[in-house]
């Protein structure tokens, strides 16, 4: 899987995280889960272990905390705590969805090894690109409704 595609997926996750704490959070929640599941499936194609998928998304948590700390310090304590709890909850749900996506891809691979034709890696990449593009379009549509 090409690095630019993985980076594109990660950027999509970041954008969705930002939107998931805003006024459209209810509309964004299903999109967030689907994007996280897709990230997990892609991690399987990339050859990562399930724990590495979790580690990548945990790293996202660390990056968010470091970058948000100055802004959170400007908020009242209650607001800052509520925001951090909401972000952590969203990220935890995303990690769970990514593991589900990873597991689904793993099961599909196991079936492929038992006589079902395996997917062509280039076809997998094209499929991932189409799915990411669809998620990006859906996010853009929802964001335009703000």
Could you provide a short overview of the structure?
With 146 residues, this protein is mainly alpha-helical. The chain has helices at 3-19, 25-45, 50-74, 77-112, 121-144.
Task: Write the topology of this structure.
Elements: H1 3-19, H2 25-45, H3 50-74, H4 77-112, H5 121-144
Helix pairs in contact: 1-2, 1-5, 2-4, 2-5, 3-4
Structure overview:
It is a single chain. With 146 residues, the chain is mainly α. The chain contains five helices and no strands. The longest helix is centred in the middle third of the chain and has 36 residues, at 77-112.
Which percent range describes the beta-strand content? under 5%
- Which stretches are low in confidence, meaning pLDDT under 50 for 5 or more residues running? none
Structural class: mainly alpha
What Rg, in angstroms, do the CA atoms define? 17 Å
Number of helices: 5
Order of secondary-structure elements:
HHHHH
Number of strands: 0
Could you give the distance between the termini?
Answer: 34 Å
Query: How is the main sheet built?
Result: none
Oligomer: single chain
Helix content: over 70%
Shape: globular
The overall pLDDT, averaged over residues, is 87
